[in-house]
Design goal:
The protein has 372 residues and is an alpha/beta fold. The strands form 3 sheets. Strands 6-7-8-9-10-11-12 form a 7-stranded parallel β-sheet, covered by helices on one side. Strands 1, 2, 3, 4 and 14 form a 5-stranded antiparallel β-sheet that branches. A two-stranded antiparallel sheet has the order 5-13. The protein has 2 domains: 134 residues, Enolase-like, N-terminal domain (Enolase-like, domain 1); 221 residues, Enolase-like C-terminal domain (TIM Barrel, Alpha-Beta Barrel), CATH 3.20.20.
Length: 372
């Protein structure tokens, strides 16, 4: 019997961050997120989280656009439609150009629903399980001073995290990385530019080669695959693509022309698990390692990332870290926690693996709508 969703419940939640998070394009103090609950005919629910931010700066999406896309375009197309598999959701919503995060939030909910129908963990349903513990790294935003940056790195290393990623932008790049390397000469370190540079900055970016970085993530514009190939030909440091890669075809193109030696896979950016698995498989075919990126997710999205990172080619520590790094209280209970070795142990509970804290969820919900 196929999968039919009879109702979709959209919830907008608001949660303040423990500490602001700054990238090259904005500083975030709190998150507005859209949760998607997909309810089947028998009343069983699956849950997804839309990873769009508060502004259309990372990509064209933000939480308000996601709400409208889900309500006016996704829901009419998917409600009461019989899906043979959660993999079919991607194609069913493909008539919507872009808006992968909105579409992916619903798609992830259907994967969670089907895992619950089969009474198995989500990681098993997607074909994961290559590891029982996920190696974890952290992403550290731009700070007010280099001393503050070094202090935060020291704290994360003391907590056991295996890899440090720092956000960079013009004016906060070479000297910040140099200071980190002087204090911590042996750590796994990478820089993430979020498209802050152009090819005119080649000479500056070449200076980063001296610091033995694991990678520079998305240094150029979100749609500049060709320019990244030009830049990679002049850098020793591997380039990792993030915003440029929205589907498996773009991953194949980037790999073929030498634009990426590493790919960051974000569940929302590629439209959900089916898209993520397709990008993963293309990269693995070409021996290009991948890792799981983060978008300041709450517990549901974080749990989905954990399941994704059990696929075999996720060989590098990702941005999946403990709930407490971002939230005073999470919408799941227990929270996501890391071990002293900087890993997250895989849970065998059904679905995405963590019970929802419904009382707290209700307290942070500012808008709710049922679509049927």
């Amino acid at each position: 019997m196929g999968i039919q969703v009879k109702q979709i419940v959209l919830r907008q939640i608001q949660m303040p961050l423990v500490h602001f998070f700054e990238t090259s394009f904005s500083r975030t103090y709190a998150r507005d997120m859209v949760l998607v609950e997909a309810i089947a005919e028998d009343g069983l629910s699956g849950w997804g989280e839309v990873t769009a931010g508060e502004n259309p700066f990372y990509n064209e999406e933000w939480f308000e656009s996601a709400w409208l896309i889900l309500k006016h375009y996704v829901a009419p197309r998917v409600l009461h439609h019989e899906f043979g598999s959660p993999s079919d959701v991607y194609a069913r919503t493909a008539h919507i150009r872009g808006h992968f995060m909105a579409r992916g939030g619903f798609e992830a909910a259907v994967w969670d629903l089907e895992a619950r129908r089969q009474n198995i963990p989500l990681w098993k349903l997607i074909g994961g399980g290559s590891r029982r513990e996920i190696p974890c790294g952290v992403s550290i935003g731009i700070q007010d001073t280099i001393d503050e940056l070094l202090g935060k790195i020291e704290k994360e290393l003391n907590d056991g995290y295996q890899r440090i990623k720092v956000k960079i932008k013009p004016g906060w790049d070479v000297e910040a990385i140099r200071a980190i390397r002087k204090r911590f000469p042996k750590i796994l370190l990478m820089g993430d530019a979020n498209s802050a540079y152009t090819l005119k900055d080649i000479d500056l970016l070449k200076q980063l080669d001296e610091f033995d970085l694991m990678m520079i993530e998305q240094p150029l514009a979100h749609d500049e695959i060709y320019d990244h190939a030009e830049l990679q030909s002049q850098l020793k440091t591997p380039i990792c693509l993030d915003e440029c890669i929205r589907d498996a075809h773009q991953a194949e193109q980037a790999i073929r022309i030498g634009a990426a030696k590493i790919i960051n896979i974000k569940l929302g950016r590629v439209g959900g698990f089916a898209g993520a698995k397709a990008v993963h498989d293309v990269a693995m075919k070409h021996n290009i390692p991948v890792w799981c990126g983060g978008m300041l997710e709450a517990g549901i999205g974080r749990a989905h990332n954990i399941a994704l990172a059990t696929l075999p080619n996720f060989t590098l520590p990702g941005d999946i870290s403990a709930s407490k790094r971002y939230w005073k209280r999470d919408i799941i209970d227990p929270w996501v926690e890391t071990t002293s070795n900087g890993t997250i142990a895989i849970r065998d509970d059904v679905g995405f693996g963590y019970p929802i804290d419904h009382d707290f969820l209700k307290s942070v919900t500012v808008r709710e709508e049922t679509l049927s």
